[in-house]
Design goal:
By secondary structure, this protein is of the alpha/beta class. It folds into 3 domains: 180 residues, Glutamyl-tRNA reductase, N-terminal domain (Beta Polymerase, domain 2); 178 residues, Rossmann fold; 85 residues. It has 17 helices and 10 strands. The strands form 2 sheets. A 6-stranded parallel sheet has the order 7-6-5-8-9-10. A hairpin with a 2-residue loop joins strand 2 and strand 3. Helix 4 packs antiparallel against helix 13, helix 5 runs antiparallel to helix 6 and helix 6 packs across helix 13. The longest helix has 39 residues.
Length: 473
């Protein structure tokens, strides 16, 4: 089978510790350079590098490299100016249909550290774009990667594998939406300026939050975060089409329908979010009267949102207030949750929500695996149809049909004595028309790169509608 030349070599969170994964992490620039070297040296007929926070994998169609693992390890170590690891057991290799199945599982997020996260499909697409730019993806990898995109989309749309947030910041926003409804026009007070706070702030802005105030012990740090939120993360355009399609880890989880609705409604422009405001912690009592949502995420060892200072202005406002405390130790005084207009959630609430979502995802794994198995069989059938010998047989049969059609169409114009000559003439004509294409096909199967052979066979099958002929047999 043609797929026997297809392989993947890599390491991931299941086979290698983080220190080794860091040593082999490439990023877009080094991935591009590695692909150019592979292309320039003709080490593989085709190659693609998939590099994420949890994996570095190279998919390739074999050519001249006698020991592909040694070749790849040496080149990556050279690019990174690092010593290659001696333990080959850290790497895995899959060949043929096993490599196809592995890629489909990756694209479906069945092989992710957080099962069901949607970042990986965007990362697979980014890897494909790099390979196309480097001219290292040809017919087989082009077809394989587009097939993998379809698998990932099928799993996303036909299962609930990615439903619900699987990270603390995302779960906080999900809880906020549960208690406040849609977030458009809501005023959000972000207490703290760390990574989780930034993640939550970006999701809140993406969901349409009307006003965002960043409060921090150091106003300058709050100002830096506020200004940073106006810039696209990781070089993306604002607003991004999907917060989960980039390269940040851990995975962010799937957007809810409300997210999509809010994003679509806000994208008439496209919309630019309102500019966040930066304040100090001492300004919180003054601001909290006009706030709908407080998200607290500081590294303080003690309470930041204390009852004595905030109970009176919160109660006097009379408006519903949701406080999401995702800090440890906690930022919010638990007594604030006793106020009639306050809904206070802490890490325990968020972790319960995350675990519920993960339980739902795990229950969907068999359905997702069934989709992967179905698509692997379909891909195998497609590749099998592109073998040279069956195509030659079908091409001969198609020309025989054409020859018989000609005899039936023009036979009445000839006498009975001339019928053998008509048969001989049409057979000879079709034989001559077939000679060069068949010679070319046989030569391809012996000498040409696999992708060239497969591409040529597919064109011939489409040109002469051989798939339909095969189905009629």
């Amino acid at each position: 089978m043609p797929t026997r030349k297809l392989s993947v070599i890599g390491l991931n969170h299941q086979t290698a510790p983080v220190a080794v994964r860091e040593a082999f992490a490439l990023g877009p620039d080094l991935s591009r350079r590695l692909l150019k070297r592979i292309h320039g040296e003709d080490a593989f007929e085709e190659a693609l590098v998939l590099d994420t926070c949890n994996r570095t994998e190279i998919y390739f169609v074999a050519a001249d490299a006698e020991d592909p693992l040694a070749y790849l390890v040496e080149h990556i170590a050279c690019l990174k100016a690092a010593a290659p690891p001696a333990d080959r057991a850290l790497f895995y290799r899959h060949d043929g249909l096993t490599a196809v199945e592995h890629l489909f599982r990756v694209a479906a997020s069945l092989d992710s550290q957080i099962v069901g996260e949607h970042q990986i499909l965007g990362q697979v697409k980014a890897a494909y774009r790099l390979a196309v730019e480097a001219r290292s993806a040809r017919f087989l990898l082009n077809k394989l990667l587009h097939w993998a995109f379809r698998v990932g989309k099928r799993v996303q749309t036909e299962t609930d594998l990615g439903r619900g947030s699987a990270g603390i910041a995302q779960a906080a926003v999900e809880l906020a939406r549960r208690h406040l409804g849609r977030l458009e026009g809501k005023t959000v007070l972000l207490v703290g300026a760390g990574r989780n706070a930034e993640l939550a702030a970006r999701i809140l802005l993406r969901a349409g939050a009307g006003r965002l105030v960043v409060a921090n012990r150091t106003v300058e740090r709050a100002r830096q975060l506020a200004e940073g939120l106006m810039r696209p993360p990781k070089g993306k355009e604002w607003p991004p089409d999907d917060l989960h399609s980039g390269t940040d880890c851990p995975a962010l989880g799937r957007r809810t329908p409300e997210d999509v609705h809010a994003a679509d409604g806000a994208r008439a422009g496209p919309r630019e979010p309102s500019r966040p405001e930066a304040v100090g912690l001492e300004d919180i009592p003054r601001l909290i009267r006009r706030v709908d949502l407080v998200l607290a995420s500081t590294a303080s060892p003690g309470i930041i949102l204390d009852y004595e200072t905030l109970a009176e202005p919160i109660a006097a406002s009379g408006r519903p207030l949701v406080i999401l405390d995702i800090a440890l130790p906690r930022d919010a005084d638990p007594r604030l949750g006793r106020l009639p207009n306050v809904r206070l959630c802490n890490l325990d609430d968020l972790e319960r929500l995350v675990e519920e979502n993960l339980d739902r995802r795990r229950a969907e794994i068999p359905r997702a695996e069934a989709i992967v198995a179905d698509e692997v069989r379909a891909f195998d059938r497609w590749v099998g149809s592109l073998q040279v010998a069956p195509t030659i047989r079908l091409l001969q049969k198609r020309l025989e049909q054409i020859q018989q059609d000609l005899v039936r169409q023009y036979g009445s114009r000839f006498s009975d004595a001339e019928q053998p000559q008509l048969e001989q003439f049409t057979q000879s004509l079709c034989g001559r028309l077939l000679h060069d294409p068949l010679t070319f096909l046989r030569g391809l199967s012996e000498e040409a790169p696999l992708s060239e052979t497969l591409a040529t066979v597919e064109i011939l099958r489409r040109m002469f509608d051989l798939d339909a002929l095969e189905q009629d047999e």
